[in-house]
Design goal:
mainly alpha; 80% helix; Growth Hormone, Chain: A
Length: 414
């Protein structure tokens, strides 16, 4: 009651920001807290050998991201026509039911089916950002979006640790149910406290005309956009390649003894922590020295940090290297988004960023698949070597097709 009274005294956009910050924070926890132990859960659903286990784990992660990559543009167009609040309710309620149901499955095929449906229900975070951007005063949109961004990142940091702890204290199945309850809370917060004055911005004829013109043809330098989208996919592929094997790799390094899910959760959260710390500072440095320098640094640093991860014999050394990977993410992802925004006309910025989201989901899908398949041939260390080689190839593509970045990297100050 007291919270309702306090919210009622605020302006509508302020109330939206507070409620959606809480909602995105809880959603961030809910989406990330099942990641560290999902492969261990897969191992409980059948008598699999090591090869089968890694493949099924990879598929379990990948199928969700494949669906997200396909349906994100569809949900985006529907949000433009029907409103963002409806998409918030669709996503939070659907995710709460499906994730809770994952705790009751007894076969890998049932789990894969539910993970497929989970992909259909994605979209809470981007729709929350879109709603905040449209409902807040224009002069405050930048600051409120920055504040909202901290919610999901913070939840994403806490989620793996909390999930690992809950799985250790209770069970993996109970953790799925608790996650579903968390997302149900997000649904009710969004239903009762989020306000949207929605009016469709496109008339039917204008919308039909827009569909006829290819967005790529309206870009001044489409080659750069394509290269950056591919880079987003490859970088995210590297980030997600460890996801299907992280708990299995940690279990191997710990020789099957100790709080494996807790440690795996901490290892999974470390890159996000360093990204949160490094991204603002690297962004400020990029404004002073040029985006090209930061982009090149991010690629080289990531390549150097990935190679030794498959050679470690200590879980703590793995944790240090994973923390370092977050620094490269803090350099790469914001810089790519900055260049994308500069290369996109205002009327196409939303479209280009939706492409970027889809390519990021594709990267998560490919990373999950490769992370599940490669250990069958080269053990766990092959995943990290493959990622380092992929980033090396990406680095060469950037140098070849974006020569305008090279002068900033090589140019000496006079």
């Amino acid at each position: 009651m007291e919270m309702t009274y306090m919210l009622a005294k605020l302006e509508k956009w302020q109330r939206n920001l507070i409620v959606l910050w809480i909602g995105c924070f809880i959603a961030g926890i809910g989406f990330s807290e099942i990641s560290p132990f999902l492969s261990l859960y897969v191992s409980e659903l059948g008598n699999f050998n090591k090869g089968q286990l890694t493949i099924y784990s990879g598929l379990t992660y990948a199928i969700t991201f494949l669906v997200v990559a396909i349906v994100s543009p569809i949900w985006g167009r529907l949000a433009d026509r029907r409103g963002r609040k409806l998409m918030l309710l669709r996503s939070s309620l659907g995710m709460s039911i499906i994730i809770a149901a994952c705790g009751f499955v007894h076969s890998i095929w049932s789990l894969l089916f539910l993970r497929f449906l989970q992909g259909l229900c994605a979209g809470y975070i981007p729709n929350a950002s879109a709603l905040i951007a449209t409902e807040s005063p224009k002069e405050k949109s930048g600051s409120v979006l920055g504040i909202l961004a901290t919610s999901y990142v913070s939840g994403n940091l806490i989620g793996p640790v909390l999930g690992g702890f809950l799985a250790q204290v209770f069970s993996i199945r109970i953790t799925f149910v608790l996650t579903g309850i968390l997302l149900l809370i997000v649904f009710f917060l969004s239903l009762f406290f989020v306000h949207e004055n929605f009016t469709s911005t496109l008339a039917p004829k204008a919308e039909e005309k827009t569909k006829r013109v290819s967005p790529l043809s309206q870009l001044q330098r489409p080659k750069i956009i394509i290269v950056l989208l591919l880079s987003t996919m490859i970088i995210q592929m590297g980030n997600n390649s460890i996801t299907p094997i992280i708990s299995l790799y940690v279990k191997e390094l710990m020789h099957g003894i100790g709080p494996i899910t807790v440690v795996a959760g901490i290892i999974a959260a470390l890159p996000g922590l360093s990204t949160l710390i490094s991204a603002p500072r690297l962004g400020e440095l990029g404004d002073r020295t040029g985006n090209g320098r930061i982009l090149i640094f991010g690629f080289l640093f990531a390549i150097i940090m990935y190679f030794p991860q498959g050679l470690v014999t200590s879980v703590w050394l793995l944790g240090i290297l994973r923390f370092m990977i977050g620094i490269s993410d803090g350099a790469l992802f914001p810089t790519i988004q900055t260049i994308l925004s500069k290369e996109s006309p205002a009327q196409l910025t939303g479209t280009v960023f939706s492409w970027n989201q889809s390519f990021q989901a594709l990267g998560s899908m490919f990373g999950s698949l490769f992370g599940g398949i490669i250990p069958n041939f080269f053990d766990y260390n092959g995943v990290f070597i493959f990622t380092a080689l992929s980033l090396s190839l990406n680095f060469l593509i950037i140098i070849i097709f974006m020569p305008e970045l090279r002068p900033h990297f090589n140019k000496k100050k006079k």
